[in-house]
Amino acid sequence: MSSGLQVGSTVETEADGAARRRPTWFWYAVVGAALVVVSTIRVLTGAHDIDSSGALMAATALAMPIGLAGLGGLWSERAGVVNIGLEGMMILGTWGAAFFGCYYGPWAGILGAIGMGIVGGAVHALATVVFGVDHIVSGVAVNLLGAGAASYLAVRTFSGLPSGGPTQSPPLAQLPFISIPGVGDALKSIEESRIWLAADLAAILRALTTNLNILTVIGIGLFVLTWWVLWRTPFGLRVRACGEKPQAAETLGVDVYRHKLIAVLISGGLAGLAGGFLVLVASNLYREGQTGGRGYIGLAAMLFGNWRPGGLAGGAALFGYTDAIQLRGGGDVVRAYLLPIGLGLVAWAVWSLWRKRQGKPVIGALQVALGVLVLVWFSLIDRVPDEFTRMLPYVATLLVLAFASQKLRMPAADGQVYRKGEAK
Amino acid sequence: MRRIDLRRLGMGAAAPILALVVALTITSLILLLAKDDVGAVWRQFFQAPKPRQVIAMINAAVVFYLSAVAAAIGFKMNLFNIGVDGQYRVAAFCAALVAGWGSNNGLPGPLVVVIALVVAMLSGALWSGIAGLLKVGRGVSEVISTIMLNAIATNLVAFLLAKVAHQATGSNVRTTQPIAESAWVPGISLDGIIATPEKVYGLIVLAILVGVANWFLLGKTRFGFDLRATGASETAALASGVKVKRMVLVAMLLSGAAAGLVGMPLLFGQDYAYGDTFQPGLGFAGIAIALLGRNHPMGMAAAALLWGYLGQQAVGLPINAGVSEKLVDVIQGVMVLSVVVAYELVRRGGIAMEQRRVAAQLAAQRARERQPEGVTA
């Protein structure tokens, strides 16, 4: 988590434009505090996998498809088109990556994934922008269509191939991995010393410098590029204007339809690439049902991140991290987190009761009870069941939405059907 | 006036047919592009189904219909209950648990069925109620919260299932305690109409009852009027004294209660337990069917039957046409998209027609008013 959060928050601070946003040092402080907490509970509970470089590498690989799908959602929603069709576009991308990757190599696979995603995006754009259909309705249909088309095409194209089948493609060639030479071994020895804080820092650096897939690097680049284009170029301003107040943009001579169309196509391409990442990097073949709802999680990560690339990266990192922990059988790691969560809840409640900030003693009492409950749970079990670990990102998103929804701000015209010349 | 209404009615009926034609055309194009045998595919879809298949179609439609009603209750109010998927699974699990326990502990069969249905409705409503409360209390979009709740439901039910699982010997499928035969709902034989020993789900009665209740409650009561009014214009409803927040919560609860019933025909007519293999994906099918059927009780019934028909006919595709049965998902997806586009175009055309008519009337009125003035002057 720490590594991902770091990535997320540095991008966030660069994007710091609005006056009422928190200062840069705040995010460094948050990351630093998180690192200290994680390191402390690692030493206290002995759950060393909590931020081992292996777990962090796995987390990065699992966060990328979620982050890319979320980035697709960001483009579309910044232009005012809600995109719950990300999942379907992602599934189309998985097939595109496998088909083109199989015949023309992994680099063509990347293009194939993007291309198939754009096809999905084009369907969504046609329905929502051109025909003015409700965005959710269109998104649901795109999901149906994407899943159906991909499995139909998979049967059609992979059935006869050696070690391929109706629901599975043949294994594909790998994309290259890159490492920064000369640092891996030194960091490895520091990490294995398990010293408080030093080992954690070494693990994070090691995860970021060794054996990074080239597509991961490209993906991180796309995050920066998205931020730069949307927040630093005239084109980006126009796209965002279409999401905030299309009628105003129209009066200034912006071709709203065109900008929305482009944004939704880019959205599809990014979602397709997210699917491609699953095929080309995460598992090196196409398998039916491979996306497993990651398009939806990407959407959640974007909401979690308040419709901003930095926040989205943080959300994706959180989801990727919980995924990685769960895959590595890390019930003990999740249990370790119960300790600071429980203590934090109690401390926060006591503090707000003492300051009478809430003015609602019931809520404070509930918080204390919840915190104590979490601590009791921590002391009673050895590991949190896998199902709960898997539930974690969704529950976290729900809680963030429930408790911070007043602080989240989505584009003002998000989800509204825009018709040219109907300015009110 | 009457003539225009008739014409709009005609246009309304034309939309689904147009959508069907568009879906067939686009699917044919895809088949041509993939170099599959187009003729064989359509022969398979349009051949007369066997009696056994007719029963399977009706049975599939029963389940689809319940799911569509659940989605439609939300749609009527502009609420997108994407969470039917999670709600029906939570409800089916709870109902299976209760029915399995009750029927094996000497409770009379019919009583067990009734209790299980109530439990299903309550647990479905409870699950959708979370989304409703978040929407009313915290302003969280129900689309997002129900998507999250779907994922949570999947994992929660998997976890609980592992706790209570009864594993049959020689099988690695986990299920709840099977329901004793006394509480099975017997199928209805259609032997007089179609010659086959297969039976339709006894709980088809439930689907019909839910359909009638939905029609009556939303179409014929003050509550239903308020609900539809809130969907049409929230501000207007608010101005006329409708408590919008309460309506949102109630609609969400009703939708969840209906969603809870989705799994019941399967539970009491086919599976007799909830397990890993319980039919998935019914929630999203329901959304598609509600869209296709315009949220109308009869429209959705027709759409549900169409869904069942397509699904059953597709089973033979791999053997008879050498094409994956997944093709049916493509057809259904294209159909939903083209039907919503068609309805949108028809709606916009209708508004334009209305505007022209009113403009013409106003022009005529002005002309009449001006003329007497001209004469007197």
Instruction: Let me know the average pLDDT of chain B.
Output: 86
Class per helix and strand makeup of chain A: mainly alpha
Low-confidence stretches of chain A: 1-19
Q: Sheet with the most strands of chain B? A: 2 strands, antiparallel
Proportion in β-strands of chain B: under 5%
What's the architecture of chain A in CATH terms? Orthogonal Bundle
Structural notes for this entry:
Chain A is an all-alpha fold. Chain A has one domain: ABC transporter involved in vitamin B12 uptake, BtuC (Orthogonal Bundle). Helix content of chain A is 73%, strand content 1%. Chain A is built from 17 helices and two strands. A two-stranded antiparallel ribbon of chain A has the order 1-2. In chain A, helix 4 crosses helix 12, helix 5 packs antiparallel against helix 6 (135-158) and helix 5 (106-130) packs antiparallel against helix 12 (256-283). Chain A is globular and about 55 Å long. Chain A starts with a helix and ends in a 20-residue tail after the last helix. Chain B has 377 residues and is mainly α. Chain B has two domains: 1-36 and 323-358; 47-321, ABC transporter involved in vitamin B12 uptake, BtuC, CATH 1.10.3470. Helix content of chain B is 75%, strand content 2%. Chain B contains 15 helices and four strands. Chain B has helices spanning 2-33, 38-46, 51-75, 84-103, 109-138, 142-164, 204-220, 222-232, 234-239, 244-260, 264-271, 282-292, 297-314, 317-320, 327-376; strands at residues 166-167, 174-175, 188-189, 199-200. In chain B, the strands form two sheets. Chain B has a two-stranded antiparallel sheet. In chain B, strands 3-4 form a two-stranded antiparallel ribbon. In chain B, strand 1 and strand 2 (174-175) form a beta hairpin. In chain B, helix 4 packs across helix 10 (244-260). The mean pLDDT of chain B is 86. The interface between A and B is large, with 48 and 44 residues.
